[in-house]
Every structure is written in C-alpha cells, then in structure tokens.
C-alpha cells in the first residue's frame, strides 16, 4: 500500500446479495468458479451465500470455504440461533472468516415485518451477537434499513452490539433511500456519538434504487469507512447493489483526491464481469460504466479525431489495463474522414484522393441505413473502391436442416479469396449455429474456438433484424466479429466469419504453393 493512503477493503456479495436478484440463481459449481475468480481479482472478503436458506447454498459456502484461499469468507445469518449455527458450520474450514448478522431496525420494518418492539430488538441483537462470539472473533452486525431508522434508536442498537463484541458495524442503505451527504454524515454521527464507536470498523452496503449506490459508498469512504460491500456488475435485488467495478475505478482514478486505495487487480475486472454476466444470464447494459459495450467506444467525429491524437482527450481510463479489448473507435454516420482514413490504413490500404471521396460517399450511405459500419463491411467497401477482395474468406451461402429432435445438419459454401476457389463443407450440431460453425471451421487453416456469442434484437415486429457478436479464440488471442441479418443464424455465421477473418489477417498466413493451402505461420 502506498504511504499515506488508507486501505479500503472490498467485500464482495455477488454470490449472496447479488444472487438474490430474480433469475440470477447460481449452482454451487458456478459459485465456486466465480469465487476463485473473485479471489484472483483481489477482493478482501467474499460472502458466498446464505447457508440456512437451502442445501445448495450451504454446500456452496462450505466448498468455497475449503477451496478458496487468500481471502476472508463471510457467513451470512439472520439474528437467529439456527442461522448462526449454519453459517458457523459452513465456514469452519475457511482460512479466515467472519460472520455477518442482520436485524431490522427501522420502524416500518419493526411494525410490519418483525412485529417486535424496539426493546425486544435490542434484546435479540445483544443475545445473538454474544452467541456468535462463542464461535467467531470477527462479527459484523447490520441494522437493516438503517437509513430510515432514526439516530436515537440506531445509536442504541449499535452500542448494544458493540458491548456484546461486534467488531464491524455495517450501516446499510437497504432500500437505496439515502442521499450521499446524508449517508456520509450518518457514519460521522455514529462514530462520534456511540459509546465504543471509535473501537470498531465500519462497512457500507448500498442499494441502487435511486442510482446513488456508488455515490453513497464514496461518501461513506470519505467519512472514514474502511469496508465497502459491492457486487460485480451491480447485480442484486430490485435495482441492484453498489457496482464493484464502478466503485473500484472511481477510487483508483481519483485516488490522489480521495487518498485511498484497494487491493483490486484492475486487469481482471472485465473477465469477472463477463463471467458473472454469463453465469446469471444477465446481459450488461451497453452504457454500463467501465464494462459496458459502449464504455470505451466513440463514434462522434470530434471525439475520434481527439482520441487519435491523444487518448486522454476523451478517456480517463485505459480499457486495456482493465482487461477490456481495445475497440476505441466505432464507425457510423457521425464519424469523420480522419477516423475512417485511419481505420482503412490499419488494413494496409492507402486510398488516393479520388478513391477516398468515392469510398467516403458509399460509407455514409451505408452508415445512414444501419447505425454502425463494422470492419468486414468496411473492407467490402474498400475492396469495391480499389476493385479487390480484401477479406481472406467469404461465406457465400449456408443451408440448414433442423427440427425438434436429433442433430441439426448444415452445409456451407466458403470462398478462399486468395485463389477465388469455392468449397462446400458440412457440419452437425445439437443446435443450428453449432452445425453451421462446425462446417465453417473446416475451411480454416487454424483452430478457431467459438468462445462467446451475444444476440440482440434490433427492431420489433414480425421481421426484426438480429445482431450477433461472436468472439473466437485463436491460440491465446481473441477476435470479435459483428453482423446483422434478418436470420439470426446467418447473423451468427457472418459474425463468426468476420472474427476468423480478423484472426487470419493478424496471423498473416503464408501460402504453401505445393498444396495451395493457407498455413498460419511467420510472414
């Protein structure tokens, strides 16, 4: 840790609070995989689940406690003896552990949910914290709905649990109600007015109902909090929780101003974001800060011109340092000549003035029709301008035999543009995309792993366009292709072809004159 900077401990609750989002349920195996990646990311604490809630959650917490090292494992429990027992047993093999206990404190929760008096709540809090201390040294207590509780009773609850041995006090904004100035000031008042308030650690747990979870968490950090509870991609109940990647990068980007740092490895952020998105089947919004598709993409000509001259003109973070593939400039109707000329030059093509003017006109016509012009389309336009075919391979056609049972069968015709030769290939698969891709792979001189597929509907009605984004892996490199088509299967096939053509261009295939095959090798 840098001298003079306060350490903020990142408490990840993706596998507990994040999984409580409707439809986000994970298997124990998925939780274990994600937990290992979270440890690699550098989080300080993982809350893997709610052990009493189900046998699967108990098993997940137990396996993660046994198999994931280098992080603190937190068992979650209501202020109920059986919950505490389950959390203690599930985490007993952890290298380091804490127990996180919660109990409602606001009047609306006490009157309509718990149906208990404030005196009864104080008694339960005391009894259960004292009970938990028999098993676990580090006990975190959360007065649920603290931001709607009122100072007087909040102080009384916190004083009681500190007296019984609680070591970490979490003041949660359970329903995302607080404003940043209110939330930060609440921690300050608790630290100043609660007996023993300076002897414990503090944690912030914010929900995002008003879109203020990150702002509130930053306010808590400024007030002296040293633990912040977050989820990957901000997943969680209702509008979600404080987003790990947004909070961490806010602290990292403005660390000189805020004077704090975390132990997170930024280059692992994108990997864990994608992993959680796929496991939960929760797409990431295009405009999601840090990890969204558009977070580091620029279409406006003025922005593109500035970025080509100096990246810092319009970017305050380097996406490649976050593990995000560099795709800085997106070409569309707002793009200027400078950016388009630069992209064309990256393909090793130089257009004279007359060719550039003709190409630019054709580009604008296409961009007006479909918003974004992708690389394979750009190469096609350039090829038409210079009367050459620039893509190594072209998917000429594909035919599918599909049905409700059995394997799907596909045949596809692919042109090797180096020779102008067309060949037909056949493939099978459990699904139509798998069958088409199996056939297409046979045309390639290298192994291309179909790594990821994203599908989007771009319009409504009976004949919508579908957009497919395909990521392929060749050796240790990844390549991404995008295509739009009325037939979503063909969109995926064209996107796969576009990604493989990127790989072929980068690998600079050499031609073996004897067997007229393209072999990936050194240029």
TrEMBL record:
Any one GO biological process: L-leucine biosynthetic process
Keyword Cell division: no
GO MF term list: 2-isopropylmalate synthase activity; metal ion binding
Keyword annotations of the record: Acyltransferase, Amino-acid biosynthesis, Branched-chain amino acid biosynthesis, Leucine biosynthesis, Manganese, Metal-binding, Transferase
Entries under SMART domains matching the protein: LeuA_dimer (SM00917)
EC number in record: 2.3.3.13
Pathways involved: Amino-acid biosynthesis; L-leucine biosynthesis; L-leucine from 3-methyl-2-oxobutanoate: step 1/4
Pfam family, one: HCS_D2
Protein's UniProt keywords contain Acyltransferase: yes
Name under which the protein is recorded: 2-isopropylmalate synthase
UniProt domain Pyruvate carboxyltransferase: residue ranges: 8-270
InterPro entries for the chain: 2-IPM_HCS-like, 2-isopropylmalate_synth_dimer, AIPM/Hcit_synth_CS, Aldolase_TIM, LeuA/HCS_post-cat, LeuA_allosteric_dom_sf, LeuA_bact_synth, PYR_CT
Broad EC category: transferase
Similarity remark: Belongs to the alpha-IPM synthase/homocitrate synthase family. LeuA type 1 subfamily.
